[in-house]
Amino acid sequence: MRSRTLIILAFIIMFCITIYSGVYANSLSKAEIVHFWVAVPAGNVTEPITLRGAGPPINMAPIIIDLDARGLPKNLLNPNIEAISTHWIYNLDKRPHKLGLDLLNVTFPVEWEVSADWPYDPATHTFTKPLPPGQRIPNLSIDWIFKIPAYYMDEQVIYDGGLLVFDADSGQPLTFIPIKFVRGEISSVGGTGSCH
Amino acid sequence: MSLERKKQALFKNKYRYLSWIIGFFIFVGPFALLTRLVYFAIGNISTPDLHTICMRMPLDWVFSGRLYNLLGQPVMTGFTVSVLITALLAGPVFCGWLCPVGAVSEAFSRAVPLPKKFRFHVKDPSIARSLRFGFLTGFILVSILVGLRYTYVGGICCRYCPASVLQNLADGLFGNTLAIEYWHTGSILVLIFWLLVCGIFTFNGRGWCILFCPLGAVSGLIHAIGAKLGFYRTVKNKGTCKNCGSCSDVCPMWAIGSDIERTLCINCKECVNRCPSRAFGMVWGRLKESDPIGNESS
Questions:
Q1: DSSP label of B194
Q2: Cβ contact, residue pair A10, B127, below 8 Å
Q3: Which secondary structure element, helix H or strand E, spans residue A141, and what is its range?
């Protein structure tokens, strides 16, 4: 009888721990390594929008990351480095685009970690093969790692720029997603925090 | 365990430990030799690593209803399906012999000479099983809620990912220091729990596998079915067993009590190689009373 009680109790405890870890993960996904979706052309993304094309509906919004909303372990052990990430870049246009990427208004070091099943030039941050209409860049993983100097960490606004996606052949801007790192504001993100 | 016995155990289990090293080189970047070969064969030019063949995400997609991802990521899906089919036919040998995540934590635990009394150990396999499936049930429910876009719950599959942490550590070890510069809360917690709490401070070092691995839990369930159908499994001869407890002393999955708990056993053969009265063996097919290893338990 005691053993049966213990078995049920063990099950309930692990179940509750797992559900709580999901709730905690939800709070972290808005402030740490935020994942977002990108579609071109979307113009200047000044408010939340949903674009529909060949693939799933794509939600985009200005990205505002509140560094104060990060988890305690992060703020204690690794506060000066933050990252954003995408696995999804879709071409919803009617013609192919050779896509170039640029982070605007960066005043401190940002490392780009890019892996994709699509030819990419790390020197110019350009995908050198045109992406056909209705397609996504396959097996994409881009992490932008922001190394924030300590003296910026006391500022209310730490970074105020954005990600520009442009046509590398014509230089024409296709999509601009504003990105802001702040301290003490409610975060808003463009997509859900999960890989792929 | 005395040093001499440790040496004997190391020698007897040499193929398994060698297999861990092979598992590391075929799955973990910058080597990822098997994945590289598969990518080469299908013409994929991206850089493979342990994260690119994540075998937990396909489970997450199934439970969250995002089945279209299974087709979009055929390599991940293929690896996961292969592991589950192998679990049916040969038991969860991927977990016991190849998985770099489990291998590293078990190796750490075995290498650190910490007295047993400082290590967490659930001696009753029924309770260990209950903990494991409490987690799996929670994992499935979280995936369903995420799939339904329930806003108070976030995905735990990627947020707490030991494969990413291991890959980052390996990248750092092999010269890419950027990989170990960024840590988010989830990865910090995983490092603490996977290597320290569930590794070094857990008896035989597979606490993460037992308590927090959805692929391991699903493989265990499938192995239990496979064993009932007569596929490859570890068996214990109760008639020969002298109840010395050596088997449970070396079992990394806490799977041995009076019987073998199939949903935990990973066919690692530690008990087979350790038992002084040779009460354990590996078998295929259904057993008869007259078989040498007869009187199969569980």
A1: I
A2: yes
A3: strand A141-147
Write out pLDDT tens, residues B27-39. Answer: 999 999 999 999 9
- Confidence category of residue B68, pLDDT binned at 50, 70, 90: confident
Beta bridge partners of B280: B236
Cα distance between the two ends of chain A: 46
| Average pLDDT, rounded, for chain B | 93
Q: Does any CB of chain A come closer than 8 Å to the CB of residue B137?
A: yes
Using alpha carbons, select from B180, B127, B23, B225 the residue that is nearest to residue A7: B127
Q: Does B180 touch chain A (CB under 8 A)?
A: no
Of A10, A24, A194, the CB nearest to B134: A10
In a domain, B140, yes or no: yes
* Letter string b/e over residues B255-290, b meaning 16 or more CB atoms within 10 A of that residue's CB: bbbeebbbbbbbbbbbbbbbbeeebbbebeeebeee
* Closest-CA distance of chain B to residue A164, Å: 23
Q: Which of B95, B48, B99 is nearest to B75 (CA)?
A: B48
Q: Which residues contact B29 (CB under 8 A, 6 or more apart)?
A: B47, B48, B49, B50, B167, B170, B171
Inter-chain CB proximity A18 and B52 less than 8 Å: no
Nearest to A170 by CA among A99, A77, A67: A99
On whether residue B297 sits in a domain, the answer given is no
- Tell me the mean pLDDT in the region B81-97: 97
Tally of structural domains, chain B: 1
* Averaged pLDDT of chain A: 93
- How far is C-alpha B156 from the chain's CA centre? 18
CA angle, B180 then B183 then B189, to 5°: 120
A104 interface with B at CB cutoff 8 Å? no
Instruction: Name the residue of chain A whose CA is nearest to B45's CA.
Output: A117
Give the residue among B268, B228, B245 at the shortest CA–CA distance from B92: B268
Is residue B295 one of the residues assigned to a domain?
no
User: Of B52, B178, B184, which is closest to A32 when you measure between CB atoms?
Assistant: B184
Residue span of the structural domain in which B107 resides: 3-228
pLDDT tens digits, B252-285: 999 999 899 999 999 999 999 999 999 999 999 8
Cβ of residue B194 closer than 8 Å to a chain A Cβ: no
The answer to whether position B116 is within a domain reads yes
Tokens 């040998």 locate to B93
Contact with chain B for residue A11, Cβ under 8 A: yes
Q: Cβ contact (<8 Å) for B160 and A77?
A: no
pLDDT tens for each residue of B9-26: 788 899 999 999 999 999
Taking the complete model, does pTM exceed 0.95, yes or no? no
B156-181 tens-digit pLDDT = 999 999 999 999 999 999 999 999 99
3-state secondary structure of B272: helix
How many of the other CB atoms lie within 10 Å of CB of B60? 25
